[in-house]
Design goal:
Length: about 325
């Protein structure tokens, strides 16, 4: 596994970071230089948590982190799904300084078996999703441009730690994330596009009802203090959760989302996702019957729910 990760790392690292013309840091030469430096650190990664490079963040980067996280913590109380709040309490990221990816990865690994691996920037969807199947979350380490702290057109360390880390430390969400990745390892090109959209409109930008109130559970919404309220407002079209519609809905990752899907309950979303994945994966496993595959998936799901229920007892009263 370490050799595969090292090979993957070498294959996806660009020599320099290229920003689109509409990126807020496009004309900022110092920002580009800093991004290239942080990108170069990822080449030291050897496939283990201990080899995740430590980034010496600047005062300005700590200031951006503090500004964004302080707003997100406040807005999350009323707008985020409870699983997200529970995850933040478990992780307890420093609100004043950018945490190290190595530290967070150790915490997550002990709980769900997932680990975070550093990358220089965006990777191809196929590479990203297939890594999830092996319990590896490819993560950036740079921080968004200070001129637009409320939204980032690409994933940054705030998105990874505030948005995704609380998901990965949750056994139920980590399991369904891994299953999406497993399906990506065996699917054809058409199915891969469907999985990309499924991941996007659930793990990245999912909405759900909690006690009859729509809340955000997607990492994209929960890591943007502009989006965390916008996604729940009338500025965004809310559609009922329907995987058939989701897999036919394209998206633009560089823009705030105009359409999002709302599931009646988080558990319902996970079960529907699992049923959809079984329809893809079962045909790639000739030796496994459909009944057995679904039975195994249901058993894993129920075990994760019981594990989460036990863990919530020890974390619900902990300070954020």
């Amino acid at each position: 596994m370490q050799q595969q990760t090292m090979a993957l790392q070498k294959s996806i690292q660009p020599p320099t970071v290229h920003l689109d013309a509409n990126h807020p840091g496009f004309c900022d030469q110092e920002y580009k230089k800093r991004r290239n430096h942080i990108a170069s650190l990822t080449t030291k990664y050897q496939g283990t948590i201990a080899s995740i490079p430590l980034v010496q963040y600047t005062k300005q980067e700590h200031a951006v982190w503090s500004q964004v996280v302080s707003k997100l913590v406040k807005k999350s109380q009323d707008n985020a799904y409870q699983h997200h709040l529970d995850g933040l309490r478990r992780l307890q990221p420093d609100p004043g300084r950018v945490p190290q990816l190595r530290t967070l990865s150790k915490q997550i690994m002990k709980t769900t078996g997932f680990r975070m691996a550093p990358v220089a920037g965006l990777v191809e969807p196929k590479v990203f999703l297939q890594a999830l199947g092996d319990g590896v979350f490819l993560s950036t380490q740079y921080i968004r441009h200070s001129s637009q702290p409320g939204f980032t057109p690409e994933p940054d360390i705030i998105h990874e730690i505030i948005g995704h880390a609380p998901q990965l430390i949750n056994p139920v969400i980590a399991q369904i994330t891994r299953e999406i990745g497993k399906a990506a390892q065996h699917c054809d090109d058409k199915e891969l596009v469907q999985l990309e959209r499924l991941y996007w409109f659930t793990i990245e930008y999912g909405l759900c009802k909690e006690n009859g109130v729509v809340k955000a559970y997607g990492a994209g919404n929960l890591s943007s203090f502009n989006d965390i309220q916008r996604c729940l407002s009338t500025k965004v079209a809310h559609r009922p959760f329907d995987i058939r519609q989701i897999i036919q809905t394209p998206y633009d990752p560089t823009q705030p989302q105009p359409v999002l899907f709302v599931v009646e309950s988080f558990e319902e979303a996970l079960q529907e996702i699992r049923e959809f994945l079984s329809s893809l994966a079962i045909f790639k496993k000739p030796s496994t019957s459909r009944v057995r595959y679904e039975a195994e998936s249901k058993a894993r799901y129920q075990n994760k729910l019981r594990s989460t229920a036990r863990e919530k007892k020890t974390t619900k009263d902990s300070p954020l």
